[in-house]
Design a protein that fits this description.
It contains seven helices and eight strands. The chain is elongated. The protein has three domains: 33 residues, no CATH class; 59 residues, N-terminal domain of TfIIb, CATH 2.20.25.90; 81 residues, no CATH class. β4 and β5 form a beta hairpin. The chain is an alpha+beta fold. The strands form three sheets. Strands 1-2-3 form a three-stranded antiparallel β-sheet. The N and C termini lie far apart (60 Å). The mean pLDDT is 84.
Length: 189
């Protein structure tokens, strides 16, 4: 690259000699920046969604290519968020594409030092048995004065902000039907 080429590639030179006098557009762009494409350019389709983290309900545009999520952005047409997402919402693509996401059921028996893989039906049966056992052992039919309680103190639920509103609603219904009274969500605390 000669001296003349280097000077012409300098942003200040392009700003002073070109149409972008304020240096806010093409004068400030490097050759590499000009060659970049947006992550959304490769998308086959756009799916409208809602951020799963809290109860605000910020709208999202999910860009999909070959049935894989390539980008998630805020939806500018949303009257709630107007295209903005908080840091958690901006990183929600990691929920479905992150390499750290587990896609196998891992189980560590009491006092064991190693995890082992379980098939999903076995794991679901184990969870159901333990929930029903805890419910039965903690069940209170009446108080000391004979008043009906019909509740269990053997179960509690603390939901997380990564659950969406529908999941939290169903969890609340499930634990209420099981007789639990300690039901809370991290997003509300």
């Amino acid at each position: 690259m000669g001296v003349g080429d280097w000077v012409r590639s300098w942003p200040v030179y392009r700003q002073l000699t070109g149409a972008d006098r304020l240096g806010r557009g093409s004068a400030a762009q490097s050759a590499r920046s000009r060659s970049l494409l947006p992550r959304t350019a490769s998308a086959d389709r756009v799916v409208n969604s809602v951020c799963p983290y809290c109860a605000v309900g910020c709208a999202q545009k999910v860009y999909v290519s070959d049935e894989r999520v390539v980008q998630i952005e805020g939806d500018p047409d949303s009257p709630i968020s107007r295209g903005r997402l908080c840091p958690k919402g901006s990183a929600s693509k990691q929920l479905v594409t992150g390499p750290q996401r587990l896609d196998k059921v891992l189980y560590r028996a009491p006092y064991a030092t190693q995890w082992r893989e379980l098939d999903l039906p076995t794991a679901m049966d184990m969870v159901a048995e333990r929930v029903l056992d805890a419910r039965r052992r903690g069940w209170q039919d009446h108080d000391e004065h004979g008043r009906p309680l019909r509740r269990t103190m053997g179960l509690a639920s603390l939901g997380g902000a990564t659950l969406d509103n529908e999941e939290n609603f169903l969890i609340k219904k499930l634990f209420t039907a099981l007789g639990a009274i300690q039901i809370e969500n991290q997003a509300r605390i």
